Predict the structure.
Amino acid sequence: MDTARNQPSLPAQAGVWKKGAYISLFVFILSFVYAFVRYNIVRNVPYDQIPFFISNKVFALSSVIIIGLSFVLGPLAKFWPQTFVPKLYLRKSLGVFGFGTAAVHAVISSSIISPAYYPDFFDAAGKINLIGETTLLFGILAFSIFLIVAVSSIPAIEEKMGMERWKSVQRFGYLAYFLVLLHVGVMDFKDWSDPEAYKYLLIPISLIASLFIIFVFLVRIFAGTFKKSP
Ligand code: HEM
């Protein structure tokens, strides 16, 4: 969720948001098609669960990818400056759209959390079990940190904070991203070894999200060895 300081001029701002919106929409559509095929077609989840249950997975996966793209642009600009330095301005819009998508996921999840939807998160008495409590805690912590990072990117607040303080708050975005990895890992780790989860090679959404997060961290770690920062 890096807010790029090398912003385009004011008249170009609308175009920046438009591009970020198009990329986010593209990611959302791809995620939707994947979830639709994996759940509605292959696993026969009824179509009437598309608006909430399935779309919640789509919002969840999209947010991971969109936020990840915003995080990975900086390192990519170190490897291929000619291609990616001109794209750095997209970091802010991708961060904001990714956060918005995560917010929708958090609201939908909170409204449908129940043994009927998520039996793995509940015990026989209907209380949230250890897996449910841990996974929800990591999700809520991640979302709270993303919220602070997003608020710090509101231009008036950003200006008041000063560059150094603003940058250190932005870095907490990585902590939040790591907490998302724990959020999805705790929830689905045991299912990743189940061959049924890989029917038609359609791997679990939680695994796609985890691999993408690990990829983003690896690229950033690798890029950390380069001295010049864009
Ligand atoms: C208040 C905060 C949050 C709550 C209550 C929450 C709750 C949930 C729940 C109940 C699920 C299970 C969904 C399902 O399997 O259908 C889930 C899955 C997931 N969440 Fe969250 N979450 C929160 C925050 C986040 C954030 C901030 C992100 C990412 C930026 C995120 C990403 C994911 C992903 C990728 C999945 C896996 C979806 C799947 O495998 O189908 N969550 N979350």
